[in-house]
């Protein structure tokens, strides 16, 4: 079951350069930063009420986010939905014929298990499912 929009991913050239806008201009609180080597990105989470904004900066030229920025420029990259039992959700989506990028969960930021649906299967939107180990991502 989908619990909420966990976060919205925004691709940027440089987290350092855009942080003043998100923190000082928009007044969002920085919750943490980390590098997710597996995804080739540095990420920063900003709290926006019940949901978060995830700034994504590529740390590798081959990463999905680097390719996205090269083709489309900076902007909204993905929508992440918090779910329970991500393995079951992937199974159900596959049964509905939905093309998954990840057919098994992988490790994402904040210790979450994540899996992406292909944007072609979701009306041009890259959708991420995420589940915090031991429960829904908070
Ligand atoms: N949102 C919507 N559509 C997207 C997209 C995005 N973020 N990224 C790519 N696409 C579209 C492209 O426009 C293209 O469409 P057309 O064929 O109509 O031109 C199609 O998807 C294929 O894109 P591509 O550039 O040819 O292929 P890529 O090699 O870049 O792969 C994708 C695209 C989605 C499969 C790849 O980016 C991927 O596997 N993403 C999942 C992992 C990821 O995004 N990780 C970063 C976030 C990590 C985190 O949050 O921790």
UniProtKB/TrEMBL annotation:
PROSITE patterns the record matches: VOC
GO biological process annotation, one example: L-methylmalonyl-CoA metabolic process
Highest taxon in the source lineage: Bacteria
Gene3D superfamilies noted in UniProt: 2,3-Dihydroxybiphenyl 1,2-Dioxygenase, domain 1 (3.10.180.10)
CDD domains: MMCE
VOC domain boundaries: 4-132
GO terms assigned for molecular function: lyase activity; metal ion binding; methylmalonyl-CoA epimerase activity
Keywords noted in UniProt: Lyase, Metal-binding
Family: Belongs to the methylmalonyl-CoA epimerase family.
Protein name from the UniProt record: Lactoylglutathione lyase
């Amino acid at each position: 079951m989908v619990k909420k929009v966990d976060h919205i991913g925004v691709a940027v050239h440089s987290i350092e350069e855009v942080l003043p806008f998100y923190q000082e201009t928009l007044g969002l609180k920085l919750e943490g930063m980390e590098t997710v080597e597996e995804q080739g990105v540095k990420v920063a989470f900003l709290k926006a009420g019940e949901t978060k904004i995830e700034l994504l900066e590529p740390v590798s030229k081959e990463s999905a986010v680097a390719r996205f920025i090269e083709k489309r420029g900076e902007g909204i990259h993905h929508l992440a939905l918090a779910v329970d039992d991500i393995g079951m959700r992937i199974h159900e989506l596959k049964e509905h014929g939905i093309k998954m990028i990840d057919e098994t969960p992988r490790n994402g930021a904040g210790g979450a298990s994540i899996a992406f649906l292909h944007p072609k299967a979701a009306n041009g939107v890259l959708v991420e499912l995420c589940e915090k180990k031991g429960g829904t991502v908070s």
